[in-house]
Amino acid sequence: KHSLPDLPYDYGALEPHINAQIMQLHHSKHHAAYVNNLNVTEEKYQEALAKGDVTAQIALQPALKFNGGGHINHSIFWTNLSPNGGGEPKGELLEAIKRDFGSFEKFKEKLTAASVGVQGSGWGWLGFNKERGQLQIAACPNQDPLQGTTGLIPLLGIDVWEHAYYLQYKNVRPDYLKAIWNVINWENVTERYMACKK
């Protein structure tokens, strides 16, 4: 059974950039719902497998993708944020960003633009293309998980579902995106980058 991971900081730790009310609802209600629904879906899937019921297996796949993706995405998202975040990455990750995007500022602009441009709900991502050995920006709709749908390894995810910002930023997604850069945990993103380069 999947379980809701603990946050590595308090709900109010990312204020003023993301307020405690948003963090509490986002983690304890939204992420928890993905986890619960994923467990229920996997149980039904096991039953369908045991019966050899392929039609039922296919019917369950959208729920598996949505709730499984929601669990994967949020588990990455919480660790990508930190009350001691912000600034720029250092070392190899910064070098790779400069190599693949020209500069850190250009990278920030591109990831912000991709995230602002998500229609409806979804995610903006910095991913690693293992085949090319390059960093890549991508946007995914809904809860589509980056690696499962594009093959890119997720390094940094920005949640642009309205539940991630509406209580504080209303419908002004660009203001939320401007603020989130102040709490990006570059140590975590760097760890992910170093791990996928091995």
Overview of this protein structure:
- Helix 1 packs antiparallel against helix 2 (54-80).
- This protein has helices at 20-51, 54-80, 91-101, 104-116, 146-150, 166-169, 173-180, 186-197, and strands spanning 122-129, 134-141, 153-159.
- The longest helix is centred in the N-terminal third of the chain and has 32 residues, at 20-51.
- It is globular and about 55 Å long.
- It has two domains: 18-78, Orthogonal Bundle (Helix Hairpins), CATH 1.10.287; 89-194, Iron/manganese superoxide dismutase, C-terminal domain (minor pseudopilin epsh fold).
- It is mainly alpha-helical.
- Strand 1 (122-129) and strand 2 form a beta hairpin.
- Strands 2-1-3 form a three-stranded antiparallel β-sheet.
Shape: globular
Q: Could you tell me the number of beta strands?
A: 3
Residue runs with pLDDT of under 50 for 5 or more positions: none
Structural class: mainly alpha
Q: What's the helix count?
A: 8
Q: Portion of residues in helices? A: 55-70%
CATH topology value of the largest domain? minor pseudopilin epsh fold
- In the sheet with the most strands, the strands line up as 2-1-3
Mean pLDDT: 98
Please tell me the CATH architecture of the largest domain by its name. Answer: 3-Layer(bab) Sandwich
The separation of the N and C termini measures: 29 Å
* CATH 4th-level superfamily of the largest domain: Iron/manganese superoxide dismutase, C-terminal domain
Q: What's the domain count?
A: 2
For the report, how would you describe the main beta sheet?
Answer: 3 strands, antiparallel
What is the C-alpha radius of gyration, as a whole number of Å? 17 Å
Order of helices and strands: HHHHEEHEHHH
- Share in β-strands: 5-15%
GO molecular function, one term: superoxide dismutase activity
Binding site for Mn(2+): 26, 74, 159, 163
Pfam family, one: Sod_Fe_N
Main location: mitochondrion
